Amino acid sequence: MKISATQKAEDNERVAQLAEAETPFTEDDLRAKWKVYTERMSEKKIVQVTMQSCILKFNDNYQVDIVVENEVQQHEMEEEKVDLLTFLSKELNNGKIRLNIRLSEIGENKFALTNKDRFLEMMKRNPELEVLTNSLGLELE
């Protein structure tokens, strides 16, 4: 399949517009698009699990820290970074987004939470867990 000169020019123009775009977005907007991208990663299980378990830190000027637990996750996310950044920039219409992938520091590990805290965090991400917990009459300890 050959790309026409017109199509290539249109693509180049869209890339240039996207690079200049700076539509504001919220952390919730970012997390929603992050989830969409993560759900598409079923063929790349390591990346998908890493994206589901990492910590996102939304900073000023559209800087996003992606905090991972180990070097394997860091490597896998670095490999995925360009595609992820392209997706987020396009979906959020903001070419100023920057991703910084780094290892977690001592005390930053979200898995240091208690079992109850972890479950509450999971319920925030998946409200169906609360429905299941209530329907089974379970209590958190």
What does this molecule look like?
This protein is mostly helical and 141 residues long. It has 2 domains: 103 residues, 2-Layer Sandwich (GMP Synthetase, Chain A, domain 3), CATH 3.30.300; 33 residues, no CATH class. It is built from 6 helices and 3 strands. It has a 3-stranded mixed sheet, with helices on one face. The radius of gyration is 18 Å and the shape is elongated.
Write the layout of secondary structure elements.
Blueprint: H1 5-20, H2 27-39, H3 45-53, E1 55-58, E2 63-68, H4 71-92, E3 98-103, H5 115-125, H6 128-135
Parallel strand pairs: 2-3
Antiparallel strand pairs: 1-2
Which percent bin holds the helix content? Answer: 55-70%
Q: Rounded to an integer, what's the Rg over CA atoms? A: 18 Å
Given helix and strand content, the structural type is: mainly alpha
CATH-defined architecture of the largest domain = 2-Layer Sandwich
The main sheet comes to: 3 strands, mixed
The tally of beta strands, per DSSP, is 3
- The CATH class of the largest domain turns out to be Alpha Beta
